[in-house]
Amino acid sequence: MPSFRSSMTERGWPQDVGIIAIEVYFPSQCVDQQQLESFDGVSQGKYTIGLGQTKMGFCSDREDINSLCLTALSRLMEKSQAGYENIGRLEVGTETIIDKSKSVKSVLMQLFEESGNTDIEGIDTTNACYGGTAALINAVNWVESSAWDGRYAVVVCGDIAVYASGAARPTGGAGAVAMLVGPHASLVMERGVRSSHMAHVYDFYKPDLSSEYPTVDGKLSIQCYLSSLDNCYSTYSRKFACIKEASSPPMSLSQFDAMLFHSPFCKLVQKSLARLAFNDFLNTPKEELTQKYTGLEAYREKKLEDTYFDRDVEKAFMTNSTEQFNQKTKPSLLLATQVGNMYTPSLYGGLVSLIAQSTVESLSGSRVGMFSYGSGLAATLFSLKGSLDRGPDSALAKLIASQADLQCRLKARTEIQPDVFAQTMKLREETHHKAPYIPVGDTKVLFPGTWYLTHVDDLHRRLYERHSLSTSNVATKAVDVAYTKEASISLPNASNPLSSLPQPVLSNSSQQ
Ligand code: HMG
């Protein structure tokens, strides 16, 4: 039998590595932001117009980071039918730490038990909202590396974003995203342009290990986010100039068909798109200015670093970029406005939102800009290219079909009154890290197929069960179909990476 490495070399290294399939999970309970404004006694419009939020998803004591990730991964594996035995790397990104030693990845390994597959690299990565992106980069790097053995990688990112009562509370949320990564992907990670900005700042951090709540300097966090965006865009533009064809124009927003951002709250995302338009304006050669812009001359002398809270600049470029925002960014904010900040999955929830509202024609060949930000801080701007294979059985067509139920799932949630939401937050505060503990949250309200915590024993060991895949609960019944086998999305045979790749190394090495 030829060695795995030599057979891989004969076949060539993997091409078009990126996201093949994606699944999102968000809680079945949410609170309305308008009602929250009244309950919190703030002026009407502050959360809905000022922050751009509509609803906020939240979890009872029945869900924790392990259960969220178990649910997202189970759904991905069922819908993609990738097969647990075909996974060679599993990466988790999260900032919701419930154990200082035991990883979420190790908890997820219980899903692989039946397959007998324990040869799975990868572990948890943490830095605020950035962990999911670090996990994705690790997964892509593995597939593109000499260590790759021909199997898929999976990335799971999840978080429960909760804040103490006060100004930050309406910017919470919760959820998890799982992604199948491999060659011949539907959304290919572009090479040579990925750009990062990393620095040491205390803008948002979680020094109190006994609490779920962060310590936040809201204003500083916004400045850090915007300056990271400026930095990443500048570096991405420089790298783009090196790889672009000589005849194509330099980097500007027009190079992106869609531009997605980590979304702590939707208003900041609209301001971020405007920020890129301001960058483009400052980068425009003097001789082209009058042809491209009118009425903005006064801002030409402005400097990026002096304008993070410059209302005039913000207003002028939000107006200037309205059409671009509506076209390139607004569709990606569906989950962000309806669920809130999911932390590590936020950017990937944006991707799911975009996919759910795309057609094969609109996504094929398009460039999707992805800006990831995690406080502390770590930021990366990268881009995905939609596959050119646009047939009805193509991976891209299947990816889009797999998200057709998104709106239906959002509508099937149960809306909870703000006082009950506040009580739930209080319960989480009081019982976080309690052992032994038996959760009291109602499991009947959970979506079908949701994993939940049954109890924590006196040694802090957590036990989980899965809610039935079909339910008689009226509220969640509407989404039953999305969780059943009939709705599963099989990977396209023609472009299934595994069909054209060497057998997983597991079968070779286990025979030695
Ligand atoms: P705040 O005190 O509510 O701020 O805190 P505000 O008083 O400035 O109000 C917010 C906006 O509402 C303002 O809009 C007001 O004018 C407007 P702006 O002028 O800035 O455009 N407003 C109204 N609009 C319409 N009708 C009204 C009304 N009243 C006021 N009646 C803040 C807001 C975001 C700072 C707070 O919620 C917070 O600290 N959140 C958490 C931190 C955060 O989200 N930071 C974002 C960047 S950092 C990041 O993204 C990382 C993160 O995801 C964590 C991680 O990485 O893990 C957070």
What are the salient characteristics of this protein?
512 residues, disordered N terminus, 10-stranded mixed sheet, Peroxisomal Thiolase, Chain A, domain 1, binds 3-hydroxy-3-methylglutaryl-coenzyme A, 3-stranded mixed sheet, alpha+beta, 36% helix
State mean pLDDT (0 to 100 scale): 91
The CATH class label is Alpha Beta
The fraction of residues assigned to DSSP E strands is 15-25%
Poorly predicted ranges: 1-7, 474-490, 492-512
Largest sheet: 10 strands, mixed
The hetero molecules present are: 3-hydroxy-3-methylglutaryl-coenzyme A
* Count of folded domains: 1
Overall SS class: alpha+beta
What name is given to the CATH topology? Peroxisomal Thiolase, Chain A, domain 1
| Radius of gyration, in angstroms, nearest whole number | 23 Å
- Number of distinct helices: 20
Count the beta strands. 17
Q: Architecture, CATH level 2?
A: 3-Layer(aba) Sandwich
* Overall morphology: globular
- First-to-last CA distance: 11 Å
- What is the CATH H-level superfamily? Thiolase/Chalcone synthase
- DSSP helix fraction: 25-40%
Task: Describe this structure as you would to a colleague.
The protein is α+β, with helices and mostly antiparallel strands and 512 residues long. The chain has one domain (3-507): Thiolase/Chalcone synthase (Peroxisomal Thiolase, Chain A, domain 1), CATH 3.40.47.10. It is built from 20 helices and 17 strands. Strands 1, 4, 5, 6, 7, 8, 9, 12, 13 and 14 form a ten-stranded mixed beta sheet that branches. It has a three-stranded mixed beta sheet with strand order 3-2-15. A two-stranded antiparallel sheet has the order 10-11. Helix 5 links the parallel strand 4 and strand 5. It is globular and about 70 Å long. Residues 43-46, 49-51, 95, 128-129, 167-168, 171, 204, 216, 218, 221-222, 225, 262, 264-265, 267-268, 341, 343, 373-375 line the site of 3-hydroxy-3-methylglutaryl-coenzyme A. Its EC number is 2.3.3.10. GO terms for molecular function: hydroxymethylglutaryl-CoA synthase activity. Residues 13-185 form the Hydroxymethylglutaryl-coenzyme A synthase N-terminal domain. Catalyzes the condensation of acetyl-CoA with acetoacetyl-CoA to form HMG-CoA. This enzyme condenses acetyl-CoA with acetoacetyl-CoA to form HMG-CoA, which is the substrate for HMG-CoA reductase.
